[in-house]
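Go through this:
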Amino acid sequence: MKVNELTGHEVHDLLAKKEIRAIEVTEAVLGRIDGVEEKINAYVTVRREEALREAEEIDSKIQQGEMSSPMMGIPIAIKDNICTRGVKTTCSSKILYNFQPPYDATVVAKLRKVGAILIGKTNMDEFAMGSSTENSAFGTTHNPWNLSAVPGGSSGGSAAAVAAGETILALGSDTGGSIRQPAGFCGVVGMKPTYGLVSRYGLVAFASSLDQIGPITRDVRDTAILMNLICGHDPKDSTSLNVPVPDYTQALVNDIKGMKIGIPKEYFGEGIDLEVRRTIEKAIEVLKQLGANIKETSLPYTEYVVAIYYLIATAEASSNLARYDGVQYGYRTQGTNGKRQSAMVKMYEDSREECFGDEVKRRIMLGTYGLSAGYYDAYYLKAQKVRTLICDDFAQAFKDFHCLLTPTSPTPAFRIGEKIDDPLKMYLSDIFTISANLAGLPAISIPCGFTKEGLPVGMQLMAKPLDEEMLLMVAYTFEQNTDHHLKKPALM
């Protein structure tokens, strides 16, 4: 297998044994980017010279006997809504086309500290608003398994880069499934941690009560390793949980005998693709054979999750995106003939009109409407009350089950352009992932099979808050007894 196709822990073992150098790993990844990036479009920015220089510095430390972290010398890609000091962070939007943050996000600072090599910033739906990575000011990202299909979104660039061998590891953000859905579409592992377990400091806000940073990797062990490094309390984030962080690699035990897994019947009804359903059912049989006790359960408020999400998320987006006014940073309209606008309000309006994409404008308008006088109680406040009922659904289910199992998405990756003109169809592609964000739960997507056309199918596992270890144990056991995660796209 080529170096750029190895997992992070495999690369670490080779580096520790001095059988390979960090510069070779970085060159292999950059070589792959040179070879396929024109087809994939996974990156907004590639840090070529800087990454090579950092790799040489890491090699020097390793030669001197310093090998302090499993991430040391490992290339990692960062979604372009996570701040990186001195490196453009655009959110794939024209309004931030040349913005260079003066600071690192907490997760980036942690990764730099342990010697990870930041290879670049990945493409995404603008401001993380989308499910296909078609809503980017820098062009659509393509799925490595089928270049005419979407990679999912909004972390499509990160998932595609991992699947295509354009990075070893990646970070994404998940507001309503934006890590898990692209992971499912691209045949890789993606985890959304419990809300507050990973600092959001330096994550450009979309919906602050829903957003969470998490890993995208080739196998479950790499996910556990990354979780060890990025989790933990951060005083810079007021929503950060001050709880002990376990060693998640200790949860990687190939044994689920007696585990109680619930199958919510609402996730297997109308609208689910037949091949997805059959693939998930086969995965369920594997888990049964491994000793899990699997029974049907119910989450009655599932039918409301899309409506509730698109009230709460758009309301928070409306508030968070008000700061992009063309004054402090980012793009400012030049006005007619390059002259400055005479009216400040006109300058605000034109800056936003010229640079926000259609989907971002749509969500800002939806959110502003939901928060407006006369509608706040009828829409936003009611949505928050139903959100509580959705949380209660899960709390009740977890009295009987260790975790819940669902498809990651109702369909495999759809074709580019297929849903872009129908927002409702696009929104429904996240119907199985949204609930975990509304309830603040940890959830993971792992590869569990393929369609007849060779497109990956993802299986989602959800657990009670702060029970990431349970998810990792079940995911790891399934992975150790199947080979879906070992398959690679036939991308030339």
